[in-house]
UniProtKB/TrEMBL annotation:
Gene3D superfamilies, A to Z: Ankyrin repeat-containing domain (1.25.40.20), SOCS box (1.10.750.20)
First and last residues of every ANK repeat: 75-107, 108-140, 141-173
InterPro entries: Ankyrin-SOCS_box_domain, Ankyrin_rpt, Ankyrin_rpt-contain_sf, SOCS_box, SOCS_box-like_dom_sf
Gene Ontology biological-process entries: intracellular signal transduction; positive regulation of protein catabolic process; protein ubiquitination
Protein name: Ankyrin repeat and SOCS box protein 12-like
One Pfam family here: Ank
Organism in which the protein naturally occurs: Branchiostoma belcheri (Amphioxus)
Record keywords: ANK repeat, Repeat
Residues of the SOCS box domain: 276-316
Family in the record: Belongs to the ankyrin SOCS box (ASB) family.
Pathway(s) the chain acts in: Protein modification; protein ubiquitination
Gene name tied to this protein: LOC109468554
Length: 338
């Protein structure tokens, strides 16, 4: 799988990466085993991968089983990695109850959460997150769980990750100055529901522009409008970007806006039409209110003492109502009033 020509971290079931091939410095950290003899599969690895919950329970009642719970095999996988990859919920519960480490990576920097996301095992993802697994995965992995879920169009998993604190703009995949955030993952595979949900959850539609201008004043980088055109997304994507405040006039490295691109499509025509039309006062006010709340509080807009129609408009229910869930937490009213 590739994004802008750079491979996204992925699992090859047949390819093994020896521990001595790890990047310098990593082979000596606590997250990796340097002794290959210790890294071989244990019986707990085998039964966890098979999903034999009864046998896992039996093994965990023994001293040998307890000693194996966080042992790595020659893929760097603990039993929890294998159970998560195969979607064995009951085995995961047993391992978690017995203090399996939730956030350690395998040799490809994949945590159990990321492996469960790649397998689209919704229940397993939820169990791991509720047990305290990091929704952002391992810091050295190219692919975050949220990016993978958005790429796959797994809306339920996207929702769970965001609800448990996943950073909607986090990505380690870069092409030049362009950062391929989860929003971009939803664009390239045309995952409209995930695209909507990420925007409603506070994903920055100007992330690359804001990041580049902060780090490299005066440098240009393509926008998500450019990506929508190049990946032949329907006009609805461009409309949503505009409604969420994306800069329609942002110029790429070739000094072209998305409207200047030489593509013949309804989306380009729609972008050109939008470029000639100023934002409505309603849209401008909505962007101002949401911008002042910030992405940490925007999901709690329904808690404000406002008319239902106004709350629905601020939550983009006219455009995104079918993908929105509710999240509880904190006292938004007092936060806003102070």
């Amino acid at each position: 799988m590739f994004a802008f020509g750079r491979p996204v971290a992925d699992v090859s079931e047949n390819a093994r990466i020896p521990l001595n091939m790890l990047p310098p410095g990593q082979e000596s950290t606590a997250c990796w085993r340097s002794n290959v003899d210790e890294a071989l599969d244990t019986e707990l690895h085998h039964v966890a991968e098979r999903g034999d919950a009864a046998e896992v329970k039996n093994l965990l009642s023994t001293e040998e089983g307890q000693a194996s719970i966080n042992r790595r095999n020659d893929y760097g996988c603990m039993p929890l990695h294998l159970a998560a990859a195969q979607g064995h919920q009951e085995v995961i519960r047993l391992l978690v109850r017995n203090k399996a480490k939730l956030n350690f990576p395998d040799v490809k920097a994949q945590t159990p959460v990321l492996l469960a996301v790649k397998g689209r095992h919704v229940g397993c993802v939820r169990i791991l997150l509720e047990a305290g697994a990091n929704p952002n995965g391992w810091q050295n992995s190219l692919c975050t769980p949220l990016y993978q879920a958005a790429l796959d169009g797994s809306l339920e998993i996207v929702r769970d990750l965001v609800t448990h604190g996943a950073d909607v703009d986090l990505s380690h995949i870069r092409v030049g100055l362009f950062v391929c955030t989860p929003l971009y993952g939803a664009i390239i595979h045309k995952r409209l529901d995930c695209f909507k949900f990420l925007l409603c959850s506070g994903a920055d539609p100007n992330y690359n522009k804001n990041r580049v201008q902060k780090m490299f004043p005066g440098r240009a980088v393509q926008s998500f409008f450019h990506a929508v055109v190049k990946h032949k997304c329907p006009p609805e994507y461009a409309h949503l970007l505009m409604e969420f405040g994306a800069d329609l006039h942002q110029r790429d490295e070739m000094d072209k806006t998305a409207a200047d691109l030489h593509f013949k499509s309804d989306t380009v025509d729609y972008i050109r039409e939008m470029a000639a039309t100023p934002l409505t006062l309603k849209t401008t006010c909505r962007l101002f209110i949401r911008g002042n709340l910030g992405k940490e509080k925007v999901s709690r807009l329904p808690e404000l003492p406002l008319p239902t129609k106004l709350v629905d408009y601020l939550m983009y229910k006219p455009e995104c109502g079918e993908v929105l869930g509710t999240t509880a937490g904190g006292d938004l009213v007092s936060d806003v009033q102070t």
